[in-house]
Write a structure and sequence with these properties.
The protein is an alpha+beta fold. The protein is built from 7 helices and 19 strands. The protein has a 7-stranded mixed β-sheet, with no helix packed on it. Strands 1-19-18-13-14-15 form a 6-stranded mixed β-sheet. A 3-stranded antiparallel β-sheet has the order 2-17-16.
Length: 429
């Protein structure tokens, strides 16, 4: 039986690793532009509570593994199967599972946290969750496996349903639910203080990132390495208890134009897999002019001098606006607009006059045509009638002057009127 369990564990490790792939990434968590006048002090903040040094002396309460199971039938329930830590024995919560469900004793040595279940029963069906917690590094990981129980050996299988691994096992057999994590974080024999580092780099304008200058290295063990003259001259500084407070801020005093550039704070916690980077672009501007200070006036015999009221004289400011091209163009536009308006009026008058003359000519022609239609044909006068009318006109004009008319003008007007009436009468005949 012991040999069978060993074979099952080896198969679980080799064929079903179930390991978490968590790589340590150097993540940029903050980037800022900072502008400070020359001569002042600059503080580039770099804080991380995960870098606070709390040494795990006992190594028994920082790492914990526990298995839970969720059952949906006959009723929904969540049950803790067992848990285990490096400094304590594994604890099984249900008395039915004691001696039947367990973890390997070397779990925190080789990183194999697989759950072994002997003599599988129908009530073992459910969704099992392997949970790994590292309280010191604030890391929590989990993996789910579904266990189904069958009475037919032909139905035994293992497959992936798109979310988790599913095991279909035979009733009364043994099964190993794999949970393997071989990261050094979960194993013994590590020196935590030797894998916790913080350092500052400086990149001057025009310098590549791989040519950046190292300013300082800090180690959780207390070792410190300063580079260059800036730290030797106390112009740059980082707190001595940085790993106690989690404050790795860089202080730069008496800023100068040469101090501008790119500063980066790197936090490495190799034990916990933490890799963080914070970038600050520092710009140094000219110093602000100091405001003039006036010394206090001292009065003799503590008697203040009389205050004279000053009357401000009105200030007259003459503003001369030079003429520009827009002024000439504006007046030229007014002139052209007036000329175009007059031209339009003249054209309108000419057109209306021509239309009126054309209407009068049309009216005369229509009147002449109407008279021709009423006569029924051409009006012809006999030569004898015309000759008679002519003689009458001459007779009328040769009457003696001793008539009854008082005025020769009236007489001639009356004679002409009578002759016209006789002439028109004969024409209409």
């Amino acid at each position: 039986m012991h040999l069978d369990m060993t074979v099952l564990q080896i198969l679980a490790v080799l064929l079903l690793p179930g390991a978490w792939c968590q790589s340590s990434n150097n993540v940029v968590v903050e980037a800022k532009n900072i502008t400070i006048p020359a001569g002042s002090e600059a503080v580039l903040p770099c804080h991380s509570p995960r870098m606070v040094w709390t040494r795990d002396r006992l190594k028994d309460r920082q790492r914990v593994v526990h298995w839970d199971v969720v059952r949906s039938s006959p009723e929904y329930s969540v049950e803790r199967v067992l848990d285990m830590s490096p400094g304590a024995r594994q604890r099984v919560y249900n008395g039915i599972n004691k001696g039947r469900v367990f973890l390997p004793d070397s779990a925190f040595t080789d990183g194999n946290f697989s759950l072994v279940i002997n003599n599988v029963v129908a009530t073992d069906k459910g969704v099992y969750t392997c949970n790994l917690h590292h309280h010191y590094c604030q890391i929590h990981q989990s993996i789910q496996i579904q266990l189904n129980v069958t009475k037919s050996a032909r139905r035994e299988k293992r497959y992936w349903d798109g979310e988790k691994t599913v095991f279909v096992v035979l009733l009364g057999s043994s099964v190993v639910l794999p949970c393997v994590n071989r990261r050094s974080l979960w194993r013994e024999g590590l020196q935590e203080d030797q894998q916790q580092v913080a350092h500052w780099d400086f990149q001057a304008p025009g310098v590549r990132a791989n040519k950046a200058e190292r300013l300082v290295d800090l180690y959780a063990s207390g070792e410190r390495r300063d580079y260059g003259l800036l730290f030797a001259q106390r112009k740059m500084s980082v707190e001595e208890d940085a790993f106690t407070l989690g404050d790795f801020s860089l202080t730069i005093s008496d800023l100068r134009p040469d101090d501008k550039g790119l500063y980066s704070c790197h936090l490495h916690h190799h034990y916990c897999g933490l890799q963080e980077r914070r970038i600050f672009r520092l710009t140094v501007v000219p110093a602000l002019p100091s405001a003039p200070t006036t010394s206090p006036r001292i009065f003799q015999n503590d008697v203040p001098e009389p205050r004279l009221e000053e009357v401000e004289s009105p200030h007259v400011v003459n503003v001369i606006l030079p003429e520009h091209r827009g002024y000439f163009v504006q007046h030229l536009g007014y002139f052209l607009a007036t000329f175009i308006l007059l031209a339009v009026i003249v054209v309108a008058v000419v057109v209306l006059t021509r239309r009126r003359k054309k209407r009068e000519m049309d009216f005369e022609l229509r009147r002449y045509d109407r008279g021709s239609m009423m006569s029924g044909g051409e009006m012809t006068l006999d030569s004898t009638e015309l000759r008679a009318c002519h003689q009458e006109l001459r007779a009328c004009s040769q009457e003696p002057l001793n008539s009854d008319y008082k005025n020769n003008l009236l007489k001639e007007r009356g004679m002409a009127k009578d002759c016209n009436m006789d002439f028109e009468g004969k024409m209409w005949k």
